[in-house]
């Protein structure tokens, strides 16, 4: 049942590495970068996106999981960190890690991998917003794809994941496609079934935006 998921120790280590990357990235950004819009999350600025990225482990630590994944839940995370500078956000994320790393090891399978999937998706939302193309070949990307394969293999077109196994689609691009960050046409250009994937993800938080009329 969990054949596609990476071992829990690898999942936890991938999240630690991800957090360190984001903390380092935030510490190097000019403060005004925090007000940039995030194309993949158009309702959020960079600062608000990072507030959500920090808020998820905070809520797991405190057991605040009522309404998980809803707009009210994520909105509360954004409000919690409103007004913080990018350096303050970086410091908050680093401090959270001192507790969360141990907690994450106790998060049951497959939810532990889902945490990484959400985080690495937003890591690359952040990088896209600031024009940074780094960290595309990381264990976190593979953890995320393992969870996506586990969660959506029966909803997505046959052969979608086999393209990754064959090396036909870059892991990063498959991740962005399966988390609603690529249009149907862009997925077609990669050799994927854009319409089929869009239909398979419809009704989930990972569904791509509907095309404009």
Account of the 3D structure:
The protein has 213 residues and is mainly alpha-helical. It has a domain at 8-152: Four Helix Bundle (Hemerythrin (Met), subunit A), CATH 1.20.120. It contains 10 helices and 2 strands; from the N terminus they run αββααααααααα. It has helices at 8-28, 46-62, 71-80, 86-104, 111-130, 139-152, 160-165, 171-178, 184-189, 194-201, and strands at residues 37-38, 41-45. The chain has a two-stranded antiparallel ribbon with strand order 1-2. A hairpin with a 2-residue loop joins strand 1 (37-38) and strand 2 (41-45). Helix 1 runs parallel beside helix 5 and helix 2 runs parallel beside helix 4 (86-104). The longest helix has 21 residues, at 8-28. The mean pLDDT is 94.
Task: Supply Rg.
Answer: 17 Å
Number of helices: 10
What general outline do the C-alpha atoms trace?
globular
Could you name the ranges where pLDDT drops below 50 across 5 or more consecutive residues?
none
Order of helices and strands: HEEHHHHHHHHH
Q: Report the average pLDDT across residues.
A: 94
CATH class of the domain at 8-152: Mainly Alpha
Helix percent reads 55-70%
Question: What structural class should be given to the helix and strand makeup?
Answer: mainly alpha
Q: Main beta sheet, described?
A: 2 strands, antiparallel
What is the CA-CA span between the terminal residues?
Answer: 41 Å
Strands of the largest sheet, in order across it?
Answer: 1-2
- CATH topology type of the domain at 8-152: Four Helix Bundle (Hemerythrin (Met), subunit A)
CATH architecture of the domain at 8-152: Up-down Bundle
Instruction: Please report which band the strand proportion falls in: under 5%, 5-15%, 15-25%, 25-35%, 35-45% or over 45%.
Output: under 5%
């Amino acid at each position: 049942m969990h054949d596609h998921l990476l071992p829990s120790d690898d999942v936890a280590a991938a999240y630690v590495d991800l957090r360190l990357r984001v903390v380092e990235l935030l510490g190097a950004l000019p403060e005004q970068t925090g007000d940039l819009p995030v194309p993949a999350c158009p309702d959020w600025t960079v600062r608000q996106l990072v507030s959500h990225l920090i808020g998820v482990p905070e809520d797991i630590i405190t057991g605040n999981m009522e309404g998980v994944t809803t707009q009210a839940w994520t909105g509360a995370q954004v409000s919690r960190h409103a007004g913080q500078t990018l350096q303050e956000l970086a410091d908050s994320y680093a401090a959270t890690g001192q507790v969360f790393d141990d907690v994450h090891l106790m998060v049951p399978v497959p939810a532990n991998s889902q945490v990484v999937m959400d985080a690495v998706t937003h890591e690359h939302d952040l990088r896209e917003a600031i024009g940074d193309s780094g960290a595309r070949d990381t264990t976190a990307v593979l953890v995320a794809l393992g969870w996506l394969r586990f969660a959506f293999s029966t909803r997505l077109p046959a052969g979608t994941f086999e393209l990754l196994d064959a090396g036909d689609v870059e892991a990063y691009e498959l991740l962005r496609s399966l988390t609603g960050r690529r249009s149907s046409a862009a997925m077609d250009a990669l050799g994927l079934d854009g319409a089929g994937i869009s239909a398979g993800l419809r009704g989930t938080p990972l569904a791509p935006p509907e095309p404009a009329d």
